[in-house]
Each structure stands twice: as structure tokens, then as C-alpha cells.
Amino acid sequence: MSPLPWLVAVLTTATTYTPWNTSANLQNGTYGGLWSSGDWGHAVTAPFVNLLGPIAPLVLALGLGGMLFIYSDDYGLPSVVIILLSALLFKYLPPAGQAISVVLIVGAVALALYSAWTGPGGRR
Q1: Cβ-defined contacts of 62-70 (< 8 Å, 24+)
Q2: What is the pLDDT at residue 56?
Q3: Which of 8, 63, 108, 121 is the most buried (most CB within 10 A)?
Q4: Contact, 108 vs 86, CB < 8 A?
């Protein structure tokens, strides 16, 4: 017996019924009502919060901030991006996510002040 029908069945099931298949969910599924109601903030953040839980801002902000730090080799740009992203996500997160977002904002402000203090033209 060939494994091809079994493989096709598994792949079809995996791509059709997984919660992270947002292409079908965005239009008429779980998140369709958010987009049609005009609540873009919840519509954008709902897949991340449903998949990652309350650590969604931590993963998104630190992931993007880490990539920007590696790219720029400076603390200024990543700290500003972390502050903006955490502040934008704050309204659309559950209470535990909001607490993580506040901690990220406070840490990024401290990092931005450190970057301004030790950066070009600052103290070394």
C-alpha cells in the first residue's frame, strides 16, 4: 500500500483544522467578526494572544527588539520600538499581558535612558 493517501489525509487535516490557520479564520471564522466590526486592534492581536497567551507582548516586543539590536548594535532603536509596540498592544491584551507590557515599557525606558547617557556625545 502506498503511503501517499495517508500523507495527503494528514496534511489536509493539519492545514484545515489547526487554530493557527488564520487565512480561513480571518474571513469567516473565529476572527471574522472582529474585522467586520471595525475593531482592527483586537483583530490584529487576537491570533497572537490566542496562540501565545498573555506572553504575546513579551515574544513580539523582545523578538523584534532583539532583531533590531542585532541589526543596529545600539540600544536606542530597539528600546523605542519596544516602547511603541508595547504601548500599542496594551489596550488589546488581557490583564496579565498588560502587566507584562508595563514591565516592558519601564525596562525599555530605562534602556533608552542608558543609551542616551552612554551613546555618541554622552558619557562613557
Answers
A1: 62/104, 65/108
A2: 79
A3: 108
A4: yes
Q: Does 23 fall in a domain?
A: yes
How far out from the chain centre does Cα 34 lie?
A: 18
Asked whether residue 124 is domain-assigned, the answer is no
Q: What is the pLDDT of residues 10-41, one digit of tens each?
A: 555 544 545 555 555 555 566 667 767 777 77
Q: Is the pLDDT of residue 117 over 80?
A: yes
The parent domain of residue 70 ranges over 4-118
Q: Which of 22, 41, 19, 45 is nearest to 32 (CA)?
A: 22
Instruction: Reply yes or no on whether the pLDDT at 51 is more than 90.
Output: no
- Say how far apart CA 75 and CA 79 lie, in whole Å: 6
Please give the full DSSP string across 50-111, using - where no structure is assigned: HHHGGGHHHHHHHHHHHHHHHHH-SSHHHHHHHHHHHHHHHTTS-HHHHHHHHHHHHHHHHH
The tally of domains found in the chain comes to: 1
